[in-house]
Amino acid sequence: MNDSVITSEISAPYAQALMSLAKSEDLSDRFGEDAASILNLLKESPDLDQFLASPVIDLDAKKAVLQQVLGDQVHPHVRNFLLLIVDHRRVAFLSGILRQYQALLRELNQTALAEVISAVELNEGQQQTVRDRVVALTGARQVDLETTIDPDLIGGVIIKVGSQIIDASLRGQLRRISLKLGSAT
């Protein structure tokens, strides 16, 4: 088994438990905002992520740091859930658990996730155009965009929704032209 399968098998039950709690308290969206905030914090602070994942650091130290860093920024249920994950020695899977929760929330809200790779930052109008295209493609009610900048694209975008890929980049167009010219000879 590869690492992503193991991570998924460990993350899924915790994410489902968090979703169950969120639904029972009618806090699904609030927990989703907290999950996004925590994921962003871990992304911006690799040291914190490494600290939490380290097996040699005391559990009480991890809990203290989590409580100090998060303070009252997250719902008390989410904070308690995080402390429970530390107690169960699953904090190394925190990012996976939170991403899995977000996937469950998107499913609940009929929201599609579109990964957008572009050469430059997209303005609001361009983002709305991408959202409209993904809604037409998937029939989803809403679209969450995850954007990445890749200057090698030269221009245009690549949109990934599930297993579907729409390559509207200049690099992709040049590659297709090259293949057509190569097969024409």
Automatic annotation (TrEMBL):
Record's subcellular location: Cellular thylakoid membrane; Membrane
- Alphabetically list the UniProt keywords: ATP synthesis, CF(1), Hydrogen ion transport, Ion transport, Membrane, Thylakoid, Transport
Return the InterPro entries for the record: ATP_synth_OSCP/delta_N_sf, ATPase_OSCP/d_CS, ATPase_OSCP/dsu
List, in alphabetical order, the Gene Ontology terms for molecular function in this entry.
proton-transporting ATP synthase activity, rotational mechanism
Question: Where this protein primarily resides, as one coarse class?
Answer: membrane
Topological type in the membrane: Peripheral membrane protein
Q: Does the keyword Thylakoid apply?
A: yes
In terms of Gene3D superfamilies, this protein maps to: N-terminal domain of the delta subunit of the F1F0-ATP synthase
Q: Keyword Thylakoid on this protein?
A: yes
Can you list the GO cellular component terms from the UniProt entry?
plasma membrane-derived thylakoid membrane; proton-transporting ATP synthase complex
The protein's superkingdom reads: Bacteria
Protein family according to the UniProt entry: Belongs to the ATPase delta chain family.
Quote the NCBIfam families the UniProt record gives. Answer: ATP_synt_delta
**PANTHER family, alphabetically?**
ATP SYNTHASE DELTA CHAIN (PTHR11910)
Tell me the function of this protein. Answer: F(1)F(0) ATP synthase produces ATP from ADP in the presence of a proton or sodium gradient. F-type ATPases consist of two structural domains, F(1) containing the extramembraneous catalytic core and F(0) containing the membrane proton channel, linked together by a central stalk and a peripheral stalk. During catalysis, ATP synthesis in the catalytic domain of F(1) is coupled via a rotary mechanism of the central stalk subunits to proton translocation.
**HAMAP family in the record:** ATP_synth_delta_bact
Q: What is this protein called?
A: ATP synthase subunit delta
Gene of origin? Answer: atpH
